[in-house]
């Protein structure tokens, strides 16, 4: 068997990525509490049964602040996905830091300093 995601899974991943990116750009209320926050969504992975989605991102705040951000805004992001998507199951999202991507950025910064 192949591990390539189906077209439907890819379409849902792209939809979630677009919706979360739109939320981050248009709803700036979190900047009051986290004024220096900058985020980049690197990837979205949806489970095969389409019930769960991992949103991988890179941010510039401390891990403790990111945990506060997750607790406060994940539900709002979930609501936007639920209102917009028209599928049998709406994936339950969870936010994660994309560690390999974050490490590659650090390595690139060190190389740039040489």
Strand residues, percent: 15-25%
Strand order of the largest sheet: 1-2-3
Number of domains: 1
Number of strands: 3
Beginning-to-end CA distance, first to last residue: 45 Å
- Briefly, what CATH class? Alpha Beta
Helix content: 40-55%
- Poorly predicted tracts of residues: none
CATH architecture classification: 2-Layer Sandwich
Which class do the helix and strand fractions yield?
A: alpha+beta
Mean pLDDT: 88
Radius of gyration: 15 Å
- CATH fold label: GMP Synthetase, Chain A, domain 3
The named CATH superfamily: K homology (KH) domain
Number of helices: 4
The description of the largest β-sheet is: 3 strands, mixed
Report on the architecture of this protein.
- The chain has about 110 residues and is of the alpha+beta class.
- The chain has one domain (about 5-114): K homology (KH) domain (GMP Synthetase, Chain A, domain 3, 2-Layer Sandwich).
- It has 4 helices and 3 strands, in the order ααββαβα.
- It has helices at about 5-25, 30-35, 65-85, 100-114, and strands spanning about 40-45, 50-60, 90-95.
- Strands 1-2-3 form a 3-stranded mixed β-sheet, with helices on both faces.
Task: Give the topology.
Blueprint: H1 7-26, H2 30-33, E1 39-46, E2 52-59, H3 63-84, E3 92-97, H4 99-113
Parallel strand pairs: 2-3
Antiparallel strand pairs: 1-2
Helix pairs in contact: 1-3
């Amino acid at each position: 068997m192949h591990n390539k995601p189906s077209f439907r899974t890819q379409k849902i991943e792209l939809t979630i990525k677009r919706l979360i990116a739109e939320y981050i750009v248009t709803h700036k209320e979190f900047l009051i509490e986290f004024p220096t926050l900058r985020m980049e969504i690197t990837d979205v992975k949806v489970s095969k049964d389409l019930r769960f989605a991992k949103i991988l991102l890179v941010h510039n705040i401390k891990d403790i602040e990111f945990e506060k951000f997750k607790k406060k805004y994940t539900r709002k992001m979930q609501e936007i996905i639920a209102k917009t998507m028209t599928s049998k199951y709406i994936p339950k999202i969870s936010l994660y830091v994309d560690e390999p991507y974050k490490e590659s950025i650090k390595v690139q910064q060190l190389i740039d300093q040489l």
